[in-house]
Amino acid sequence: MIKIVLLSFFALLPRFAFAQGDGGQQLRSMASAVKALGDYSVSFKLTAEGNTLVGEYTVSRDRYSLNAGDTEVYSDGTTRYEINHSDDEILIDTLDPAARDILSNPTRAFDFAADEFTSTYGGTTTVSGKTYDVVHLVPRDRDSSIRNVELLIDRTTNLPYSISYAADGLSGYVIVELLRIGAAGTVPDSLFTPDLSLFRGYEVIDFR
Q1: Tens digit of pLDDT for each residue in 168-181?
Q2: Which residues pair with residue 81 across a beta bridge?
Q3: Rounded distance, CA 135 to CA 128, Å?
Q4: Helix locations, the chain, DSSP H
Q5: Rounded distance, CA 161 to CA 155, Å?
């Protein structure tokens, strides 16, 4: 269940970036702030249905590496490697440069326009002594399984802090906290291509 929720969140997050509406300025500022980081890393915590999942990813131009739960995902900008430890399985495919969701291609998570949501600026709120802009988002698709979305953006850095939303089939809210988002510094090329020899006994499925 937690993996399904995570996939729903990752498919949703990048589409927030330039949603039009009263919160558009805050969302544009957030996208610009992320872009200004250059190579960057993100740590996150997702809570839903009484479960918690912690993960992290690093982006360098069109390359990335991601760890979440029992899954590792890597891309050198051309090929995508997904290592599923629970299934002892490695999936290899050509990277889709048009993909927007974080699990498929987090390099484009914050830098594109979308028209799936309308946004409303909800003022500010304070969490642990810090002030955040509140942006509410509503799917334009009435059949969307996601609703009541709330995004908090750090007023000092313009970087995202948290997202919460309700989803069909789940009791309560899904809450995602970005524990850290910041410049990654010097990132070695080896971070984006896994050493498959380390996963002996794993089934390799190559879709290229």
Answers
A1: 888 888 888 899 99
A2: 74, 92
A3: 19
A4: 2-12, 24-36
A5: 10
